[in-house]
Amino acid sequence: MGDPMRIRAASAGDTVEVKILMRHDMETGQRKDAAGKVIPAHHIKTLVVKCKDKVVLDAQFGPSVSKDPFLSFKFKGGAKGDKVSVTWVDNTGDSRTDEGVVS
């Protein structure tokens, strides 16, 4: 399981802006270590964001996404005090879920 995500969600009228910083090494499987051995691929594959148990973002990532990815997006239908749940699953089966509250 990776380190906790930083989740910020702010309401502006009828729109909620979500900013997520995910802690993950995101190895492509193409780099080599100091000994010349290939470092195995290890990257986030899927990301699901929910608000009030409704999916507001469903994304698929690949090996070309940088280390510790940052994601920002907006959606309608949220309000102050609602919980925003973020879950990712990587290519090794590891997963992480964290929550933030809309301010």
Automatic annotation (TrEMBL):
InterPro entries: Ig-like_fold, Ig_E-set, SoxZ, SoxZ_dom
Record-annotated Sulphur oxidation protein SoxZ domain positions: 7-99
Pfam families attached to this UniProt entry: SoxZ
Domain of life the protein comes from: Bacteria
Protein name: Thiosulfate oxidation carrier complex protein SoxZ
Organism: Rugamonas fusca
